[in-house]
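Worked example

This section walks through a single chain of length 241. The input is the sequence exactly as stored; nothing has been trimmed or padded.
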Amino acid sequence: MKELIYSRNAVYETLRAKRRQVFSIDIAEGVQDKGKIDEILKLAQAQKIRVNRVPRPKLDKVHQNNQGIVAEVSSYPYSDVIEILEHAKGEMPFILMLDSLQDPQNFGTLIRTAEALGVHGVVIPTARSVEVTPAVVNASSGASEHMLIAQANLSQTIDALKDNDIWIVGLDQAGAEVEAGSRHLKGALGLVVGSEGDGLHDLVRKKCDIVLKLPMKGQIESLNAAVAGSVALYLAYLSRK
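Given that input, the structure is written out below as tokens.
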């Protein structure tokens, strides 16, 4: 199945990652061959990918914020939990699990943060969850193309990770406040972030070794899933260091 990836960073990182087949690239007429566009053209030439100059309205039909470029590519290459664990060999596993996240922007933000912090892989449910769509690729600035993302049953995944001596921490407003340098965020870690509205499902929450929440001082009741998850990932990154 083919997809249309849009925006300069998304197309550039797709070419760099070389995990998808890129069939063709359309660039709007009048776009100058400099900066990221120039880098894309060089990669396309090296990979023998056809580049077309097209009227901008053609690209606007794909997405209004296309930044003058659209690539036709193969579908996203999902990974699996075994591959994620193998990717972590030689290091303490650092895995992000998302419990029924729905918003593409939140998903993309979390992928981008996870990739920047060296997370070995992301696991999402097989149903009732956002998938890696072109909107997610764009929201992640192309980080999704470098990240191993698996679709799996979260409850079974948690059991498998526990069998590999990985500590499972849930992030939910019903948890205990996390402290800087928390021992719960050190070592082999699987961090579970709940959905935007419902948080963690009961079964997932019960499977976690501990459930934590971010301390709040202001008047707002809670942060959204992307912000809370990103902060928790950074706390874990610093604790693991």
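What to look for: Residues 76 and 132 are 7 Å apart (CA to CA).
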